[in-house]
Amino acid sequence: MMGSENDDEAHLHASTDDMENLFLRDDADKSNSPPPITVTPADSDPLSATPQSKPNGGDSRSYIEPPSYADVIFSPFDDTSEINGSDDTHSSDYSLSRSPSSSASSDYIKITVSSPQKEQETSTSMLSGGGTYITYLITTRTNLPDYGGGSEFSVRRRFRDVVTLADRLAESYRGFCIPPRPDKSVVESQVMQKQEFVEQRRVALEKYLRRLVAHPVIRSSDEVKVFLRVEGKLPLQASADVASRMLDGAVKLPRQLFGEGGGGVETARGGRDLLRLFKELRQSVSNDWGGSKPLVVEEDRDFLEKKEKMVDLEQQIINASQQAETLVKAQQEMGETMGELGLAFIKLTKFENEEAVFNSQRARANDMKNLATAAVKASRFYRELNSQTVKHLDTLHDYLGLMLAVQGAFADRSSALLTVQTLLSELSSLEGRAEKLEAALSKVFGGDKSRIKKIEEIKETIRNTEDAKNVAIREYERIKENNWSEVERLDRERRADFLSMMKGFVVNQVGYAEKIASVWTKAAEETSQYDRESS
Amino acid sequence: MQSPRSPSSQPYLSASVTDPVKLGNGVQAYISYRVITKTNLPEYQGPEKIVIRRYSDFVWLRDRLLDKYKGVFVPPLPEKSAVEKFRFSAEFIEMRRAALDIFVNRIASHPELQQSEDLRTFLQADEETMERFRFQETGIFNKKPADFMQMFRDVQSKVSDAVLGKEKPVEETTPEYEKLKHYIFELENHLAEAQKHAYRLVKRHRELGQSLLDFGKAVKLLGACEGEPTGKLFSDLGTKSELVSIKLQKEAQQVLMNFEEPLKDYVRYVQSIKATIAERATAFKQHCELAETTKLKEINLDKLMLTRSDKVGEAEIEYREMKAESEEATIRFERIVKRMNEEIVRFQEQKTEEMGVAFHQFAKGQARLANGIADAWRALLPKLEAASSA
């Protein structure tokens, strides 16, 4: 993940920062004359002195004031602070909450995942007898009316619950761009250090839940509300098999299509055959862009065009996201090397001053000090710049997840269309059989009791299949609607998010470049006596 | 490049190293330079002279000066070898040319070295003569037999001292000189570190430039997928990114030539001072040993004179010869000491000036770069603002 520092690096930077702080603090009090500088050890906390010694880059022509050094590093109440080493350096405020419904200044919903805890398996289920599992504390802070006005509440959930939630949402919101849930990562859970894995999962869960509640429709779903509010065991049924999932989905349909209190779908024996049919159809559509199964005959050219565009877009986002990571790394290293250069000159300054025999040495020590000061300050600005850049360019990374969601939505549509088409062909073959039987019957004088019975049965099946076909068609149309509105929404939000990202990125670059320029301009002025205007 | 001051009453000597040209083929290919000398000194053949020289000629000159002017900090040369594929790159050639130019000019402006006959040869001799000189004197052939014996004796005495466990103090141990030696050795470490980071900084500039170039391209492709106004904005963003990348690459080269190279030169200088320190130690040792040997010979002579031995005559001659050699060794040593004292002052002043210039140029370059970057990105803001508020 971009921009994260592991513990070792943080420690190194802490001691480097101390040295820089000692140096800069002394510098802040010094005038620019040659007398030797003594870098006295500070007895006050070097870190607290930082804000004072930070140069005031208050140029009138400075376009914007980037957040101060203090804001970036010392944000103890923000769970995304650098010092905690948390990967999640962007808060949900930056990304994904710019849909029109939440742009009203008062609406917010913020989710935090924390305090992983080991718990004992109590139930005697087949899966694990007496094993342990991890639960996470999920805290929600919101003022949405759906959740009962301004409130804060917490529940404990395990990963299995998240899987359940995701599965249920997938059934209920077919055609929607549902953010993909974190992987089960079975291999990683065996291979990684327990602590690291738990932390990785915690971060992933937080990201996932934040994305879920950023979706204007899903955030108000029963499933999500139940998941976030109801303490104790999660009262959502885990979906055991595809068939009953289909059943659930089919049962819900009338309610959604006809409003409240619609009748249920027939689940007679004919219905059961249909369900089996549905199950087979479901499984036949793989979860890619539908390229490998040419069963679905999609004739909607607009849709095909749109799908192609999405594929292309996803590829470009992947590419841009990768380059963004490289850029961030390069900025980071620039800052680090600049800082190391500064430190090397700090040491040289000290050395020359201690050993000085000639005035030329003292003069040189002074020059080096000016250079070192500038380098150390510039280094800090580079690092601040970078942590901001990470936040902005993370938008690209976020949209990769969303592209997966779009894939899911399109897959729902394909599978629904497949259902319709299969039912249509099933229907026509049934009708063919019925015709044949009737023709055969008419040839036999007096009728054939068994044959008549067969025809009756087939006609019954045909009726059921007709019903199912109509339901399937309505489902398909509904999903198409969802697809379309979701893609519209996504396009809109993406445009806004990308615009915001670009603006943030550019403002950042300008602001810090100006600060860095002023630092070096000062150093150039301090050494202006060495200006030899040749060539 | 220095142009001569107008009135020829002021003595001047300046030289420039220009026009690098690749000659020869394959493994034997090398670079030749034009060396242009301008002077009004009577020892020289006329006001202007142009000769062609190659790197090994410069090496010859330096070796000769080291040999003849012990105690002087002879200016250092840029390194001999380089990675093969880099050896003929335009950047490397230019950096070497600049370094050689500085080398010759430092010699020409040094009060003692500028009198050197070898310098005159270097600046004036035709190419054939120069080649002959170079052939004779480079490599192991520039060491005279006497030097070999001395080196051998040094090694011997060191070994025997160690073997016999003798703690013969054959080193100067005045506090000032100790301080100087310590200073020089420590200074090299500090400078080497600074130079290392300076070199890395050059690389960082290049890497950041490259990453911005790639990022710009990626962003442009992304823009092609999007409708307006996002698409156009991405395209502009990509273009700016590429522009900034170019600025970074340019600055990388400047930092390399005007900041890292002077630091490297500083390090070389300090290393050359270390060599001078070694020379002084050798001279001191010789002076001590010869003084001691002379003393012994004197004592021996007195003994023989007392016993009226017939070996007196021989011993007297030996004694006088040894005394003369000892006095010469003392003079050599003292000349080194005197020179070093003067050189140190010059060195410190020169370095303050040169590093001051390097720092100033570095700071100016970084300021220019940062301002350029700010200007480039800033140009995008009006459009981004407009799109945001729409």
Can you characterise this structure?
With 535 residues, chain A is mainly alpha-helical. Among the domains of chain A are: 105-120 and 129-243, Phox-like domain (PX Domain); 299-529, Substrate Binding Domain Of Dnak, Chain:A, Domain 2. Chain A contains 12 helices and 3 strands. Chain A has helices at residues 7-29, 46-53, 69-73, 159-172, 186-191, 194-214, 222-229, 242-258, 269-284, 301-355, 359-443, 449-526; strands at 109-120, 132-142, 151-158. In chain A, strands 1-2-3 form a 3-stranded antiparallel beta sheet. In chain A, a hairpin with an 8-residue loop joins strand 2 and strand 3 (151-158). Chain A is elongated. The two termini of chain A are 46 Å apart. Chain B is mainly alpha-helical. Chain B folds into 2 domains: 13-141, 2-Layer Sandwich (PX Domain), CATH 3.30.1520; 175-389, Substrate Binding Domain Of Dnak, Chain:A, Domain 2 (Up-down Bundle), CATH 1.20.1270.60. Chain B has helices spanning 55-68, 90-108, 117-124, 127-137, 145-164, 175-225, 230-306, 312-378, 381-389; strands at 13-23, 30-39, 48-54. Chain B has a 3-stranded antiparallel beta sheet. In chain B, helix 6 (175-225) runs antiparallel to helix 7 (230-306). Chain B starts with 12 loop residues before the first strand and ends with a helix. In chain B, 32% of the residues are buried. The mean pLDDT of chain B is 87.
Quick tags:
heterodimer; A: 535 residues; mainly alpha; PX Domain; Substrate Binding Domain Of Dnak, Chain:A, Domain 2; three-stranded antiparallel β-sheet; 3 strands; 63% helix; elongated; disordered N terminus; B: 390 residues; 2 domains; 71% helix; 7% strand; PX_dom (chain B); Vps5_C (chain B); phosphatidylinositol binding (chain B); PX domain-containing protein (chain B)
Strand content of chain A: 5-15%
Question: Helix proportion of residues of chain B, in percent?
Answer: over 70%
Strands side by side in the biggest sheet of chain B: 1-2-3
Q: What's the count of strands of chain B?
A: 3
Q: Unreliable runs of chain A, pLDDT <50, ≥5 residues?
A: 1-14, 29-104, 240-271, 284-294
What's the domain count of chain B?
2
Mean pLDDT of chain A: 74
Alpha plus pi helix count of chain B? 9
User: What oligomeric assembly is this protein in?
Assistant: heterodimer
Distance between the termini of chain B: 58 Å
